Amino acid sequence: MQHRHVTLSGARHWTKALPALGLAAAFLAGCAQTPTAPVAGATPPESRPLVNFASCSKPVYPAEALANKVQGTTTLQFLINPEGAVIESRVQKSSGDRSLDEAARVAIAKCTFKPAVVGGKPQQAWVPVQYVWAI
């Protein structure tokens, strides 16, 4: 299985990357290698939550990490409620730099999501999201 990574560098590329980021989030939701924690009592969703990157701002590269040219990939998990809002978040796999991890977690937690659907009804569910930091 091939993995696709979305790399964002420079503000001018952010809007052009939105469709690719949505596809990457959908890909990660369906193909995450690390199992997500099930919500107690929930059945597996018919559809997984999908992030709407148009609803939030690009994570800001922390100044010190940028000055030191730190790069990496942060893998996060978000618990999405039936309304599509983030109610919990955590770093699943660090980029190797805490400031990058926290910047990605905080920014993406402000996004809205299309919630998971079970039996035709929106449900609470965890979704993995990967953010690639590249200079």
What does this structure look like?
By secondary structure, the chain is α+β, with helices and mostly antiparallel strands. The protein has one domain: Fusion Protein Consisting Of Minor Coat Protein, Glycine Rich Linker, Tola, And A His Tag, Chain: A, Domain 2. Helices cover about 25% and strands about 30% of the residues. The protein is built from 3 helices and 8 strands, in the order E-H-E-H-E-E-H-E-E-E-E. A 4-stranded mixed β-sheet has the order 1-8-3-4. A two-stranded antiparallel ribbon has the order 2-5. The two termini are about 25 Å apart. The N terminus is likely disordered.
Content-based structural category? alpha+beta
Globally, the shape reads elongated
Count of individual helical segments: 3
Q: Cα distance, first to last residue?
A: 26 Å
Beta content comes to 25-35%
Number of domains: 1
Can I get a quick summary?
This protein is 26% helix and 30% strand. It has 135 residues and is an alpha+beta fold. It has a single domain (7-133), classed as Fusion Protein Consisting Of Minor Coat Protein, Glycine Rich Linker, Tola, And A His Tag, Chain: A, Domain 2, CATH 3.30.1150.
